[in-house]
Structures are given as structure tokens and as C-alpha cells.
Write a sequence for this structure.
């Protein structure tokens, strides 16, 4: 879909992320949830294995303690018998000797307790190691499953976007709908994946100009992303921007403004007031104000968006083209407000960026050059305007052909510029060329031919007896 057609007056293009319809597909495979049915099953099995290990360990430890207690009992009986025999053969006034007889027995009991404790610790450590092994195995399986999930959804995404680039919108929708079916059947708890797929389907509907379905699907994507336990606010804002664009395409300007403002609020909180994506939403709100005929609020939004871009490092071609589009937006509003002198320097900067990235013959660069010619003419820089129109004619003749109807409008504008600059001969020459092209393609009684012929005859009559250099 060429989104230029809807907003020609702002010279938007699909190469810039700051155009009014600059939606992008979100790669849901990068946002896959690690929670899945497989993981839950593995988690349950790991829990049972750990419990069995604990039971076995406790039974072994109980057995060792019971054996130790029996040994203690036998030794106690033996010691008591020995004490009685000793008491009978010794003096009752020597309790210290009797106490010394009990000391070796107490030492043996303490050693047994230590051995039992060490055995219990050893078994507990063995049980813990088994638990850790189970966890590691479970984690390894989970990572493998997650990798498979990501690989699947990434492959589906790449397939759909390849069809989208070829404008095969129905095929792209079929691929995404199949991904939705897989998600619902195999990973019903993966709501984040489902929301990402909804967003992508909404963008495809937008590209196919099916705005009713786009609004419905994108509304679901926003609702689902908001309902997540820990919603990704950046994703919510992304879907809100697309929803706003869909509403604007339906001429529902109030609903579009609500969506854009909510996205702006989220991005300012999450990303900061000077982030490029904040500037993107501001640009969209400016376009909305322009649609409503509110030039001053539109200019305010465009200038704020432009200021944000200027303080960021614009390194990629995409970011530079976004910057040029915002420059064009500001300049166009200034032309509408008859602030011609201010618009000229802005348009010259935009033209320089576009020509350096896209080349002199790119349609967007030509559109900027046309606006610059108008601003020069209205500000009194008539010779500069003539040069601008000649440059446009050269590009159009190269692209469309020197006898194409596409050059007629520029020929007429160029004639007006030369006449305004006090050069009637080049003005009449361009009118003759325009009339020749029209007569080649249009019926003889066409209103355009009659208008051009009448204008030419007036000039020829006025300057008939004058000699021009």
C-alpha cells in the first residue's frame, strides 16, 4: 500500500518511520513466553522425582538412627553391669573413680552420634544433588522447547512478511492465521504471542486498506496486551499507534486522537520525552490536527517532533528520511500560513537530505523541490523559482518522457514563474510546449486545451510587438 496517496500534502513516504502510517510488524518470536504446556508437564514430573528421593533418604537415615540406638542400649546395659561389679569391689568413698569408669562410654556415644549426623548430611547432600540434576534436566528441556517455539514463529513471521513485501496480502493473512491456530492449539496460555499475532494481522489489514477489520483486530491486540500480568508498555503503545492510524483512515478523528495521545503518554513515561518514538507519535498527532484544519496545533506538534529528532543521533537512512519528512511537514504548514521566508531554509535542508539518500530523481525529492519553488516564488525569489521548475521539468522528462501529460502542470507553473520574473518569451515557450503535449493526448475540445490556448494567445497578443532577449 502506498500511504503517500492519503497524505500527499505532507509528502509522506513509506521509508520513514515518522510518516502518519508508519506501522511495523512486531516479530513475536522475539517475545515468546517461556511458559508452555510442555514446561508444566516437565515441572510436575521433576517434583515427583524430588519427593521420592527425599522419602528414600529419610528412610535410610531413620534406619541408621535405629541401629545406633540399639547399640547405645546394649552398651548402657554392659556399663551398668560393670559399674555394679566395680562398686562391690571398691571403696564407696571414692566417687571420682566411679565417674572415671563412665567417661570412655560417653566418648563412644558421642562418636556414634557424629557418625550418624555425617551419614545424614551425606544422604541429604546426595538428595540435593539429585534434585539439582532434575532441575537442570528440566531447564534444558524447557530451553530446547522454547527454541523450537521461537524457531517456528520466526519462520512463520518471515514467510508472511515476504508475501507482504510482494503485496500478497491474502497469503500473508493466511500464514498469520495459521500461526494463530497453532498458538491456540499448542500454547493457549501464551497470550503475549497471541497479542503479537493480532497486531501483525491488523497491520496486514491496514496495508490491504481493509480498515474495518484492521480496527477490530488492533483493538483486540491492545486489549490483550494490556491484560497481560506484566504488560510490555512499548508493545501496547505500538498497537495503539496502529489503531489510531486505522481510525484516522476511517475518518474517525476523535477516536484516533484518543489512541495517539494514550500512546504518547505511555512512550513518554517508558522511553523518556526525547525518544525518537515519542517524536513519531507527535508527528501523527500533528497530521491529525492538519486533517482537522488546525494549523497552529499541527505546527506545534511537528516542530516538537523535529526538535526531538535533532537531539538524537540520526545515522541510518531511515532516520534521515524521517527527519526530512518532518522538515517537509513544518515547511508545508508555514507555507499554508504564508510564512514563506521561514519555509525556504527548512525545505532546502529537507531537499539536501532526500537527494543525498534517495537521489535527485526520487519522487519525494521532486515533491520537496516543487514546494521550494512555490515558496521562492511567493517570497519574491522569482529567478530561484524558475530554476527550481526547470530542475523539476528535467527530472520529469527523464522519468516520464518529454511528451508525457505528467509534465504539463509543471510547464504551466514554470510559465507563470518566468512571466512573474519579467521574462515573457520563456513563459510563452513553455505554454506552447504544454499545448503541444495536450493536443497529442487529449480531444481537441478538451477544457484543458482550451484554457492553455487562451492563456497563450493573451500573452502573444500582449507581447507581440516587443523584442525580448
Amino acid at each position: 500500500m502506498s500511504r503517500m496517496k492519503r497524505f500527499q500534502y505532507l509528502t509522506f513516504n513509506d521509508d520513514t518511520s515518522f510518516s502518519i502510517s508508519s506501522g511495523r510488524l512486531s516479530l513475536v518470536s522475539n517475545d515468546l513466553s517461556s511458559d508452555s504446556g510442555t514446561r508444566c508437564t516437565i515441572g510436575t514430573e521433576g517434583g515427583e522425582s524430588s519427593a521420592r528421593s527425599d522419602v528414600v533418604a529419610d528412610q535410610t537415615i531413620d534406619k541408621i538412627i535405629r541401629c545406633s540406638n540399639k547399640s547405645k542400649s546394649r552398651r548402657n546395659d554392659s556399663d551398668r553391669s560393670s559399674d555394679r561389679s566395680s562398686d562391690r569391689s571398691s571403696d564407696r568413698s571414692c566417687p571420682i573413680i566411679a565417674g572415671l569408669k563412665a567417661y570412655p562410654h560417653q566418648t563412644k556415644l558421642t562418636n556414634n552420634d557424629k557418625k550418624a549426623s555425617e551419614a545424614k548430611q551425606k544422604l541429604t547432600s546426595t538428595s540435593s544433588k539429585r534434585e539439582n540434576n532434575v532441575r537442570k534436566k528440566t531447564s534444558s528441556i524447557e530451553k530446547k522447547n522454547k527454541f523450537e517455539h521461537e524457531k517456528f514463529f520466526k519462520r512463520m513471521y518471515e514467510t508472511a512478511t515476504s508475501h507482504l513485501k510482494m503485496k500478497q496480502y491474502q497469503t500473508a493473512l493466511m500464514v498469520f492465521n495459521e500461526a494463530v491456530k497453532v498458538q491456540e492449539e499448542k500454547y493457549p496460555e501464551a497470550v503475549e504471542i497471541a497479542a503479537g499475532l493480532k497486531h501483525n494481522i491488523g497491520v496486514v489489514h491496514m496495508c490491504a486498506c481493509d480498515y474495518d477489520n484492521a480496527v477490530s483486530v488492533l483493538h483486540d491486540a491492545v486489549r490483550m496486551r494490556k491484560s497481560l500480568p506484566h504488560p510490555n508498555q512499548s508493545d501496547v503503545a505500538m498497537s495503539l499507534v496502529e489503531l489510531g492510524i486505522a481510525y484516522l483512515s476511517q475518518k474517525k478523528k476523535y477516536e484516533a486522537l484518543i489512541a495517539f495521545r494514550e500512546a504518547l503518554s505511555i512512550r513518554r513515561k517508558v522511553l523518556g520525552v526525547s525518544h525518537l518514538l515519542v517524536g513519531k507519535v507527535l508527528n501523527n498527532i500533528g497530521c491529525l490536527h492538519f486533517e482537522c484544519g488546525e494549523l497552529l496545533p499541527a505546527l506545534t506538534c511537528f516542530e516538537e517532533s523535529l526538535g526531538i529528532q535533532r537531539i538524537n543521533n540520526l545515522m541510518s537512512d531511515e532516520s534521515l528520511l524521517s527527519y526530512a519528512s518532518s522538515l517537509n511537514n513544518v515547511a508545508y504548514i508555514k507555507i499554508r500560513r504564508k510564512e514563506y521566508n521561514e519555509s525556504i531554509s527548512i525545505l532546502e535542508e529537507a531537499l539536501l537530505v532526500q537527494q543525498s539518500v534517495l537521489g535527485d530523481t526520487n519522487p519525494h525529492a521532486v515533491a520537496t523541490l516543487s514546494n521550494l519553488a512555490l515558496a521562492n516564488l511567493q517570497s519574491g525569489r522569482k529567478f530561484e523559482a524558475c530554476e527550481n521548475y526547470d530542475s523539476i521539468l528535467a527530472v520529469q522528462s527523464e522519468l516520464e518522457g518529454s511528451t508525457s501529460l505528467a509534465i504539463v502542470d509543471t510547464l504551466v507553473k514554470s510559465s507563470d514563474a518566468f512571466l512573474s520574473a519579467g521574462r515573457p518569451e520563456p513563459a510563452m515557450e513553455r505554454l506552447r510546449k504544454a499545448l503541444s503535449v495536450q493536443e497529442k493526448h487529449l480531444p481537441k475540445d478538451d477544457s484543458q486545451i482550451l484554457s492553455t490556448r487562451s492563456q497563450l494567445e493573451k500573452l502573444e497578443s500582449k507581447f507581440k510587438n516587443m523584442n525580448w532577449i
The chain is about 80% helix and 0% strand. The mean pLDDT is 76. Residues 69 and 112 are 9 Å apart (CA to CA).
